[in-house]
Amino acid sequence: MDEENIRDPDQPFYDRLIDPPSVPDYEEEYEQAIQQSRIEYETLQKHILYELQEKEREERLHKFDGIKKICRRLIAVCEKDRPALELFLYFISLYETDYINQFDAEPEFYYNLFSILETTRISKGDLELCRKLIVLKNI
Hints:
Structural class: mainly alpha
Mean pLDDT: 88
Radius of gyration: 40 Å
Helix content: 55-70%
Low-confidence stretches: none
Distance between the termini: 130 Å
Shape: rod-shaped
Largest sheet: 2 strands, parallel
Strand order of the largest sheet: 1-2
Oligomer: single chain
Number of strands: 2
Strand content: under 5%
Order of helices and strands: HHHEHHE
């Protein structure tokens, strides 16, 4: 009776190994992503550099605005100081266009110009800016 209730053994199960699924080659896509990232980085760097240069140029252009206004008024009023002041305005324009960073002046011109500028209403800070632009030539 017990033997009637015993079931037959299961059929053996055989696993068959198959080839692993093919993995796509991402190497080319990886290289393209790196190249694209590099291009974006370089573009961003150029943009940042351009903005910094533009900001520096704007600062250079407006650094001497007050001094130029005072010098133009003096040129209109004082005939004897006109040549020195016009030359000074010319050096300022060269500085603003980034042709020079400073000018080495002869002692005669240097002392004449700063004696004129010191008698005007130019602030000490602006006068120091002038001294950085026009320096005394070492002889």
